[in-house]
Design goal:
about 550 residues; mainly alpha; 3 domains; disordered N terminus
Length: about 550
């Protein structure tokens, strides 16, 4: 919950200067409906009240017996039905009383908020408020976003379309809304939720609306209502079977952000521009020229018809073309590292982790795109791993990745042959993602269980899904080792004599060096079969050291 210090408005015993009681006529009407005296209720207009309301993205904020009004609501001289409902909601909070404990913001969808909304609807219809039993957390806010959206969506005799400006205004209202679940429920009760989905019909604006809406919703009930209308819109417009899958995107956005909130939410850090580091990456067939370095989405890449034909014929027939689209490090991995200065190695780690994520759902991040480091911190917290270790695995993969290989791997995965290729920052294989349920942190079982091969490939391009998949797989391989007897893995024991299999159950910061190197070896092949890739394990460990040296986390 968001912690907020009590304002001077809440702490004064007397009525502060600048506050006013409810207008006499409105007060008499509301007192009759609430069956309670509203003498103590004070309205606050002006810059301070508007600033607090604006900070919370609200039109009205209740703190004790004080109601702070936004600039828009304060300008309403004669409250109509919409404003009465809004005020009734906040008045209910003034009568509910506070729960014990520190003052903080009442979360959307809480029992106190649901009661206040039920009461407000009854009062707005001229009915008695009914019993008020809940207590709130000290600060409660409300919006009339739904009414403003309805205004922008509504047709008039000479206005039979929602204009581009109106669509932009609606997107802004959704983005700023502090309680979008309530707005969706309000729109649904007014039979206007379908209009929100169908009348914002510019393709780019609709994608923005769908992604933002999924991210901002916090309750399953509101999600289900909006998903139903999205599916109806898709059917009516012929999108259900051959168009863009808005319902799937909405579901991904909702479940992904629900998952991240459950883990404690994303931190935010300042992203760097990879273009400032372009000296680190070379031509399209060179090491460290893929999405990890450049931030170029593989979906934007293509392969010429001639090269496609030659790749289809195989390495034996066209070895030079095949090599152009394969792992780009030509010789030994240590030799490649020796071509880099210590500064270049650290800068590779920085440009990989400190740039904004590549994602197919950018509009779901209403406060701006997080960096890959932000995502890695959350994934590390979830899986008891250092974010630097997750980054080390990805840096090793991206050093031996090229832009050409990005294009080839995604093209193959999305082709009619559905190639089982490795994709994204952690070079996760499509079948590995399915078999090991690597999207389970961000999607619900029914959703990830229904994903097609191509769906998985598309999601692996998204950095947030790939980073979580990488972290989940690292943890899965590590946990599997704790159940093994090192005596039955003679090659592993000989190559990594200091390995401690039980230590894998601990946080990765407590793993011996040989545990990290061995896990790096097992990451790229069948885990713990005693067939080793020790060179790659050392390559991962070097990358991990470079991430630590770059002091990213």
């Amino acid at each position: 919950m968001q912690r907020i210090q009590p304002t001077h408005l809440a702490s004064r015993r007397s009525h502060p200067a600048g506050s006013t009681p409810l207008p006499p006529g409105l007060r008499a009407s509301l007192e009759a409906r609430f069956a309670a005296s509203l003498d103590a209720v004070r309205l606050h207009r002006g810059n301070t009240a508007a600033a607090v309301a604006g900070l919370l993205g609200a039109d009205a904020v209740a703190v004790g017996c004080h109601i702070l009004l936004s600039a828009d609501l304060a300008a309403v001289a004669d409250p109509g039905d919409r404003a009465v409902r809004l005020l009734a909601h906040e008045i209910c909070h003034t009568l509910q009383g506070r729960r014990p404990g520190p003052l903080h913001l009442e979360p959307p969808g809480s029992p106190a908020e649901r009661e206040a909304e039920r009461v407000a609807r009854r009062v707005a219809r001229g009915l008695a408020a009914g019993p008020i039993r809940q207590r709130h957390a000290g600060i409660a806010c409300n919006t009339w976003t739904a009414d403003r959206i309805i205004y922008e969506l509504s047709y008039a005799a000479n206005d039979w379309a929602v204009t581009a400006d109106e669509e932009i205004e609606i997107l802004g209202l959704v983005r700023r809304d502090s309680n979008f679940d309530k707005t969706v429920n309000d729109l649904d009760s007014e039979d206007m939720l379908d209009a929100l989905v169908s009348r914002v019909d510019d393709s780019e604006n609709r994608i923005k609306l769908i992604q933002m809406s999924g991210a901002k919703l916090t309750t399953r009930a509101a999600f289900d209502k909006m998903l139903k209308q999205i599916k109806i819109m898709m059917f009516d417009e012929g999108e259900m079977f051959m168009g863009f899958n808005y319902a799937q995107t909405f579901t991904f956005s909702f479940e992904m952000h629900q998952g991240m909130r459950a883990m404690g939410g994303l931190g935010t850090s300042t992203a760097l521009d990879p273009k400032h580091y372009k000296k680190l990456f070379g031509a399209a067939d060179q090491p460290f020229s893929g999405v990890g370095a450049t931030g170029v989405n593989p979906h934007s890449l293509s392969i010429g018809v001639t090269d496609k034909y030659k790749l289809a014929r195989g390495e034996k027939n066209y070895p030079k073309v095949y090599q152009k689209y394969s792992n780009p490090i030509p010789g030994s991995l240590p030799d490649y590292l020796r071509t880099l200065t210590p500064r270049q190695r650290k800068d590779q780690a920085l440009v990989l982790m400190k740039q904004a994520i590549v994602t197919s759902m950018p509009h779901s991040y209403v406060n701006g795109l997080p960096t890959r480091a932000d995502i890695a911190k959350l994934a590390g917290k979830k899986h008891n791993l250092e974010p630097a270790l997750i980054a080390g695995f990805m840096l090793a993969e991206q050093r031996d990745q090229s832009k050409n290989e990005d294009a080839k791997d995604l093209t193959a995965a999305l082709s009619i042959m559905e190639g089982n290729t490795s994709i994204g920052l952690g070079q996760v294989v499509v079948s590995t993602a399915r078999k090991n349920e690597l999207f389970r942190d961000l999607l619900w079982p029914a959703t990830w269980g229904a994903l097609s091969h191509k769906d998985i490939a598309h999601l692996l391009v998204c950095d947030e899904f790939n980073i979580f998949a990488t972290a989940r797989y690292i943890r899965k391989v590590a946990d599997a080792a704790t159940k093994l007897d090192i005596g039955k893995l003679p090659n592993t024991k000989a190559k990594f004599p200091l390995i401690n299999l039980p230590a894998y159950a601990k946080h990765s910061k407590d793993w011996p060096v040989h545990n990290i190197m061995a896990l790096g070896s097992e990451y790229t092949s069948t885990a713990w079969d005693d067939t080793l890739s020790p060179g790659w394990g050392g390559f991962v460990y070097e990358a991990y050291g470079d991430v630590l040296a770059a002091a990213i986390f």
